[in-house]
Amino acid sequence: MAATYPQIVLFGDSLFQGAIEVTDGFSFTAALQSQVKRRFDVLNRGFSGYNTSNALKVLPEIFPPPAPGGPKLEYLFILFGANDACVPLPTNHQHVPLARYKANLRGIITHPNITAHKPKIFLITPPPLDQIRLTELDLAIGHKAVTRHTKVSATYSEAVREVAAEQGVVLVDLWKALMDRAIARTPGFDPANGPLLGDPEGGLRGHLERLLPDGLHLSAESYRIFYGLVEPLVGSEWAGTPDEAKVGYVLPDWREAPWLDEDAHLADPAHQI
């Protein structure tokens, strides 16, 4: 039977689709694959434009039930909401009402094709939104109004926190991590004194300009912060073991392979060409 690698799946929208790209010398997906090399396959299943309703429709095509000889879903990272949080517009139909969004997240987490694998599940909050920058770009491409609002998007991130607590899965608070960085690197800004960064009411983008270049998608700096949240969540299987460099390999280290004695003659100079 062929060796199968357990899987880490990144299931989400364009924020995961873009995680595979190399930007300013960094790729989130590649960094994660390097961390778990020889132990897991990292599968990027990010779909630009998808909301949670779309995700539920395609889920059975992406996650088959366990099968003899098939791979096991070991870790599942879920990141949807940036599109669900769109405001309803004649030029945009991605909006999913907040209550339906929460129900859809529950539906993903509890789907039989997922639960059959018994994976470790991580629910990720959508990141902050720079509505100031997004307004410029949305109007430029023909929308009559901005497609997303800072305050509305923040409620969808809060919904993720609620669902994670309710379902007993691990929360990865990307919204907080990026907003904390933006605040820390925006001189003189005090969030206690008014609207959030990126909110037109406050009129200040601050360091969100670097974290969200188009107001929505992540820069390399943001993906590095994101990876910093994910890195300690993966690898407890081998971390701290006496020989953690090799523990968990699907196929053995060459020095410990069961066929090593069979091939010992290859090391004999008399057999070398």
Brief synopsis:
The protein is an alpha/beta fold. The chain has 10 helices and 5 strands, in the order E-H-H-E-H-E-H-H-E-H-H-E-H-H-H. Strands 2-1-3-4-5 form a 5-stranded parallel beta sheet, with helices on both faces.
Mean pLDDT: 93
Number of helices: 10
> How are strands sequenced across the largest beta sheet?
2-1-3-4-5
Q: What summary fits the major beta sheet?
A: 5 strands, parallel
Total discrete domains: 1
Termini separation comes to 34 Å
Per DSSP E runs of 2 or more residues, the count of β-strands stands at 5
| CATH fourth-tier homologous superfamily | SGNH hydrolase
CATH class: Alpha Beta
CATH topology: Rossmann fold
Integer-rounded radius of gyration: 22 Å
Structural class assignment = alpha/beta
Question: What is the percent of helical residues?
Answer: 25-40%
The shape, in one word, is globular
Order of helices and strands: EHHEHEHHEHHEHHH
- How much of the sequence lies in strands comes to 5-15%
Gross CATH architecture: 3-Layer(aba) Sandwich
Low-confidence parts: none
GO molecular function, one term: hydrolase activity
Protein name: SGNH hydrolase-type esterase domain-containing protein
Pfam families: Lipase_GDSL_2
Keywords: Hydrolase
